[in-house]
């Protein structure tokens, strides 16, 4: 079973509301099978399942769980970053919360996110290679140079910087770039 197919079990297109028995094919999965697979995956990789389910908006609880997992990881590695390590307890926790939220928002971005679609390739990840098109006389596509074939732009670090400066007003851009970012 693929992880991508889990989302369709949470919002089926047409629920069957009848008293007729379901198909008896051996390869069909029941809701119990899917829930068992999700439970097993969640016990082995809790962060991955929470991030995936939150990204596909299956539950708000999963979004918050994924951000909490990111916070725990940020606390673990924050000693490596001078700008964060020297902050006091409450301020440090708030800054790490903001950074974890922005990291999760960046993970959740896609070409379908409003305002994130690449201006050059319009979300396809491919752009026309003008020089090869002129040489060959037919349309030749290449990986988009602006988005590197992803189809959307990443979350700008300047947005995270603005959010962090609300908590630490004396944080300068060079300090942000050298010690936090």
UniProtKB/TrEMBL annotation:
Keyword Cell cycle: no
UniProt keyword list: DNA-binding, Transcription, Transcription regulation
Keyword Cell inner membrane: no
MF (Gene Ontology): DNA binding
InterPro entries reported in the protein's UniProt record: Antitermination_sf, Antitermntn, HSP_DnaJ_Cys-rich_dom_sf
Region (Disordered): 1-28
Listed GO biological process terms: regulation of DNA-templated transcription
Chain coiled-coil ranges: none
UniProt superkingdom: Bacteria
Protein name: Antitermination protein
Biological source species: Escherichia coli
Upper lineage: Bacteria, Pseudomonadati, Pseudomonadota, Gammaproteobacteria, Enterobacterales
